[in-house]
Amino acid sequence: MQSIDVEKIMSEIRSEIKEKGITEEPLPFHDPYETELPFAIPQHFDKDELHNETINAMALYDTAVQPIRQAAGMKGLVKKILNKMAFYSMNSHMISQNTFNIAVVNALLQVNALAADNEVLRKKVDTLQQEIDALKTQQK
Q1: What is the mean pLDDT of residues 98-125?
Q2: Among 12, 41, 53, 71, which is most exposed with the fewest C-beta within 10 angstroms?
Q3: For residues 51 and 112, is the Cβ–Cβ distance under 8 A?
Q4: CA 67 to CA 83: how far, in whole Å?
């Protein structure tokens, strides 16, 4: 039986790795347990961003199925049948989704109005704070 020198084999492997320029740094990889969001979570309130997103939601809330363009012959008949099947099977889901989308748009509009009200109140607080500061300087 032949003896195996593990240390010699490992040193040969290490020297071969050094010759190829491979470093001992771990290879970068994506952690599969780390969930990536398709959007960035805002850290601070931005009234303009809220307004823009509200406008986007208002423009895109309708999820109705668009009819498939009709073709002639057998292809047109198949498309027509598929379109009708999709409409009848998806209609209740589309109604539910549209109702939800409208509720979200209305909620965004309410938040937008609240942001406008908060802006007015912030300006009032600023003017009152200036008046308080002015009164404090007069008392001294």
Answers
A1: 88
A2: 41
A3: yes
A4: 7
Estimate to the nearest angstrom the gap between the alpha carbon of 81 and the chain centroid. Answer: 36
Q: What's the DSSP call for residue 95?
A: H
Q: What is the distance between the alpha carbons of residues 58 and 6, in angstroms, rounded to a whole number? A: 69
Distance separating alpha carbons of residues 48 and 92, to the nearest angstrom: 35
Q: What is the pLDDT of residue 129?
A: 95
CA–CA separation, 48 and 45 (whole Å): 9
Q: How many CB atoms lie within 10 A of CB 58?
A: 14
**Which of 36, 92, 42 is CA-nearest to residue 63?**
92
Q: Given the structure tokens 């195996």, which residue do they identify?
A: 4
pTM above 0.90, yes or no: no
| Cβ-proximal residues to 97 (8 Å cutoff; 6+ apart), any chain | 63
